[in-house]
Predict the 3D structure of the following.
Amino acid sequence: GINAEYMGQETGKNQHRSSQEGGMAKLLVTTTSLQDTPGPHQEALNSLPVTILRERGPLPESKMLELMGDIDYLICGDDHITRAVIQKAQPKLKCISKYGIGLDKIDLDACKELKMPVFFTPGVNHTTVAEHAMLLMLALHRNFVVAANSARDGKWKKETGHEVAGKTLGVIGVGRIGKELVKRANAFGMTCYGYDHYWDETFAKEHNLTRIVELPEILSKVDVISLHTNLTPETRDMINHDVVAKMKDGVIILNTARGELVETEAVAKALESGKIGGYGADVLDEEPPRPDHPLLKALFSPVCLCPGWASMIALQAKNSIITPHIGSRTHESVARQAGMCIENLRLFMEGKPPKAAAVGPF
């Protein structure tokens, strides 16, 4: 069931009262990052003139359908918000305020057609995610998780790793996060290449970033590939069997964007054969993943305790490090994302333009 908790005090005009029995409007919050992380955003959330209902996302379509119908506002994470969910939510639901920047789990076409405003939070998590991508890259090159586990278990096995200095990095999607990764890779002495339809020539010149205009060329050229593109019908499974075959032997692939960008079976098989030397990801095509997911094993290491699927970092398939979608989950980033998400909703409730909107407001 749904947990209801009155968190706000009624202020100003009662324009946000529920139409039923004159009660307070209801706000459903599903994103766990916002709920679990302390910070100034908690006070901002509690100050809204609403009754707050809480769930632990990401939620499937079936659960969202169950919850919709009597909700006035929604703060969501990566819940599956389909056309059916939006239709069930109307006419009560007035807007969706997305925590984060990824909108691929929301049917935006349906939102436009049904005039459902959707807000989001761009420009607030790029530093955190780029740091996480760099962490995965270094950990794979130095066999960090294996070595740390060995020391913890009293085996003291000394793994021989590799430097990243002198290696080539291919960044697929040179937006805010991709740019931040390029800056860090330069500091580590890497040579950087980028692929993006929208090219910032000024940034490229300032940060020694070479543009590659054909995707196959960059994939076959570099030692490390880092994915930072949106999930679209065109980018889904962009890393597949055919593409992997054209990559360098022993290539390292990083994915802090969306799990569906890679064909899971192709990556798992290439890891096993050694064609892919390492896969570091913060996302999977199923979240939370099923126990027999091809990139997962029932072996967890308490090297890095963190909120998520098993409350800890996981060592999975051969030469693979998967973390439970925590790339943007730092205290600093959560405060920025949650603050903007709540501010978008507050502005909308006051009849003012939100800071960032993907659809509407109407």
Q: What stands out?
A: The longest strand covers residues 276-281.
